[in-house]
Amino acid sequence: MKNPWLKKNPMLSMWLSGANAVAGAASGRAVAEGRRQQALAATAMTKAATDAWIAALTPPGPARKRTTKRRGK
């Protein structure tokens, strides 16, 4: 006697194909968003490191002179 659970079920096959397509699309979007965030974080870290080195290696500018404000006549 043949096992009825091993027969092909076209409805289940279509449902699984659709579910797989949705899961694949969601996975692709999640991976793309992760890569975008990773690139953004890398850019921010590079900018922070560059700014820190530039600030450490450049001499401070001349001090500002204090000026007095003239009051009305």
What does this structure look like?
With 73 residues, the protein is mainly alpha-helical. The chain has a domain at 13-51. The chain contains 1 helix and no strands. The longest helix is centred in the middle third of the chain and has 48 residues, at 10-57. The model has no long low-confidence stretch (mean pLDDT 91).
Supply Rg. Answer: 32 Å
Mean pLDDT, all residues: 91
**Main beta sheet strand tally, sense and closure:** none
- The stretches of 5 or more residues where confidence is low (pLDDT under 50) are none
**What's the order of the H and E elements?**
H
Helix and strand composition category: mainly alpha
Shape: rod-shaped
What share of the residues does DSSP label as strand, in percent?
A: under 5%
- Termini gap: 114 Å
Task: Note the total helix count.
Answer: 1
Helix content: 55-70%
Secondary structure: number of strands:
0
Organism: Cupriavidus agavae
Keywords: Signal
Signal peptide: 1-21
Protein name: ESPR domain-containing protein
